[in-house]
Specification:
By secondary structure, the protein is an alpha+beta fold. The chain folds into two domains: about 1-30 and about 155-185; about 35-130, Immunoglobulins (Immunoglobulin-like). It has helices spanning about 1-25, 160-185, and strands at about 35, 40, 45-50, 60-65, 75, 90, 100-105, 110-120, 125-130. It has a five-stranded mixed sheet, with no helix packed on it. α1 (about 1-25) packs antiparallel against α2. The radius of gyration is 27 Å and the shape is elongated.
């Protein structure tokens, strides 16, 4: 009987930890994000990528990798690159900060993931741009490209917290009932 109560207490503790674990994950803010302005553009338009502060060293070279459909047609500013795969474009950080316009090709479509890597500092930043034919003008506000929002947000978790609290109270009541039942003298 004693082991049953210990097992029940262990299971209850694990359930409480499982309910509280998502709270720690929601507190994370991605420090390695470049800001895309605008974050949604039409094919052939330009998006400028900047950083908050100066994550790179003074005037270090920054390698740019673009992944997406027809990414080989993307250019820096208005100069077309000679690299067909478009995985190693270069720009230079100014006083450690990034401010680089990238022109996407006229046949671009879909989501483009960009990686900016400092050649000296090794600092890696990420950004994402969506190229859509419906976007006639670059009016989308800047994207901070933080972690993807998956699951449910903090405002809709009240029901889960109430259910978790009810589970803990129920487990405690069962534990108290078991202890009281064991202490009661046996009647024949």
């Amino acid at each position: 009987m004693k082991t049953t109560i210990l097992r029940a207490a262990a299971a209850l503790s694990l359930a409480a930890v499982a309910l509280l674990a998502p709270t720690a994950a929601n507190a994370y803010v991605d420090p390695s994000a470049a800001i895309a302005t605008p974050s949604t553009i039409a094919p052939g338009q330009t998006s400028t990528f900047t950083t908050n502060g100066a994550p790179f060293t003074d005037d270090e070279d920054v390698l740019i990798s673009i992944t997406g459909e027809n990414a080989s047609g993307a250019t820096l500013g208005m100069v077309k690159t000679a690299i067909e795969t478009n995985t190693v474009l270069r720009t230079r950080a100014k006083a450690g900060a990034l401010a680089v316009p990238i022109v996407f090709p006229s046949n671009a479509i879909g989501t483009y993931d960009l990686t900016f890597t400092g050649t000296v500092s090794g600092k890696v930043l990420h950004a994402r741009v969506v190229v859509s034919k419906e976007s006639a003008s670059p009016s989308t506000p800047p994207s901070t490209s933080t972690l993807a929002k998956t699951g449910i947000d903090g405002g809709t978790t009240a029901g889960l917290w109430i259910a978790g609290g009810a589970l803990i109270v129920t487990g405690a009541a069962v534990g108290v009932g078991a202890v009281l039942r064991r202490r009661r003298p046996a009647t024949v």
